[in-house]
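Sample pair:
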Amino acid sequence: MSNEHGSLIKSPKQLIIMVFASFFIPLIVILLLMIYVNNGKRDGAGAADTAKSADQLIKPVAQLNFRDANAPREFKSGEEVYKTVCSSCHATGAAGAPKFGDNAAWVPRIAKGYDALLLSVLKGKNAMPARGGSNPADVSDYELGRAVVYMTTAAGGKFTEPKPPAPETK
C-alpha cells in the first residue's frame, strides 16, 4: 500500500499547534475586522441631534418640586406658563390650536377680547381642556391670564397684563 493519503500531523506537538491555530487565527481575523470597521469617528449629519434625542428619551418622566406651603406664592410669568402648559398644543397647532405667533389664526380670537379668551382658557373650548389641562393648585387664574397676554402679544395683540391678586391673609 502506498502512503499517499497519510496524515499531515505526525506528532502530538503538531496536533497542539494545529488546534491552537484553528481556534486563534479566526479570532484574530475577526478582531482585526472589527477594528477596521469601527475605525475613526462617525460625525455625520445629525449626529448631535441623535445625541440630543437620546438624552430626551432617557430623561426622567417626572420631577418632584417641593415648596414651602407657608412661603408667599411666586407667580409664574406668561412665558413660563406658556412653556409648561400651553406649548404642547400651541407650539405645533395640535388639535386645531392656533400656533404661537400666527397672526392670521389669532386675529379673530384677539378681536373677541381678553375676557372672552380668558373664559375660553378657564372653561375649555373645542379640544382644549379647562385650564389648558393644568391643575388650579399649580397654575392660578392670574397666571393663565398672563399666558393669554403673552400669546396674544406674540400675535400682534395689545392686551394689558392682568393685575396680581391681593396677597392672602391668614
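Residues 78-154 form a domain with the Cytochrome Bc1 Complex; Chain D, domain 2 fold (CATH 1.10.760.10).
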